[in-house]
Amino acid sequence: MPDEMIIRFWGVRGSYPVPGPRTMRIGGNTACVEVQAGVHTIILDAGTGIINLGIDLMRRSRADGNRPVEATIFFSHMHNDHTMGFPFFDPAYLGGSTLHILGPKVFESDLEETLAHSMLPPSFPVGLDELPSRKILRNVNETDVVLMGATPADVEVLNLYHDQIDPSPDLVRVRTYHSYAHPKNGVNVYNISWRGKTVVYATDTEGYIETDRRLVKFASHADVLIHDAQYRTDDYINPAKPKQGWGHSTSDMAIAVAKACDAKQLVLFHHEPLYDDETIAAMEAAAQKNFPNTLSAYEGLELRI
Ligand SMILES: [Zn+2]
Ligand SMILES: [Zn+2]
Asked: How far is the CA of 15 from the centre of ligand 1 (A)?
């Protein structure tokens, strides 16, 4: 078992997919990030990037004597660009697969209900309950901590206030911060730690003046901070089409959080679909002048911490 946490980016785009020659280098698929921590395959969001991840998980399964796919999917929120790949996730169609699926309760609706709603006929021909895979769906709120143990099946949701939390560093621990800086019901930010390494996934969140202090505390000393950076500042404040209140950050807002929380590395994420490869490369270069260890996420990017 490798001692490193591996982070792979399968979809890095916000809002809607943008295939084509303008986005060849960065990629056009919407949000999906894979984190490998010990025996656990963790998937952050199911935008269209999860389709290629599903194909790759099937390839890995075949290469490993047809070992069934077991994975844990965390939804940040249930907006279309974060769920639209799920109906095309190949392992969900195999009876042998086990999928732990976790995400926020949206208003009064449980995760199971909102995910089922996203693929309900006539919008999609196969309902969630018709998928042959074994699915364990649970809400995860700010007062919960998810502990993942010695086997991929060992995924527990514990209430921080009522349960004894085992601090063993060999467990994968996922904590949640619910940010309200995204319309209409906010977004779950996840902090995944294992063996002293931490990755924080903060997509679809808008920066505040002097940063979101709760987020800064939550992401303190992250090895990798994946942060929404949809807009350039000049587009964000453009009086002809201001973006304030849309629930997304500028790269400057992402840098401010990275600096304030003392992150080791910042990954700019959830790129604006109208930005081509050159625009995103220019944003990355500008960001690196301010926070040197910054990368713009692209499909195929792999980080090891
Ligand atoms: Zn989004
Ligand atoms: Zn959203």
From this structure: 5
175 C-alpha vs ligand 2 centroid, how far in Å? Answer: 20
pLDDT at 1 over 80: no
Q: What is the dihedral of CA 6, 169, 38, 292, to 10 degrees?
A: 0
DSSP states of 105-123 as a string?
Answer: -BTTB-HHHHHHHHT-TTT
Residue keyed to tokens 């982070």: 7
Q: Are 172 and 40 in contact (CB under 8 A)?
A: yes
End-to-end CA distance of the chain, in Å?
Answer: 14
Measure 37 CA to ligand 2 centroid, in angstroms: 26
User: Once rounded to an integer, what is the mean pLDDT over residues 247-253?
Assistant: 97
d(CA 297, CA 267): 6
d(CA 204, ligand 1 centre) in Å: 5
pTM for the model stands at 0.97
Cα dist from 207 to 45, 106, 180, whole Å: 21, 22, 11
- Ligand that comes closest to the CA of residue 187: 2
Pairing of strands 70-74, 40-44: parallel
Helix axes 277-290, 251-260, angle to 10 degrees: 30
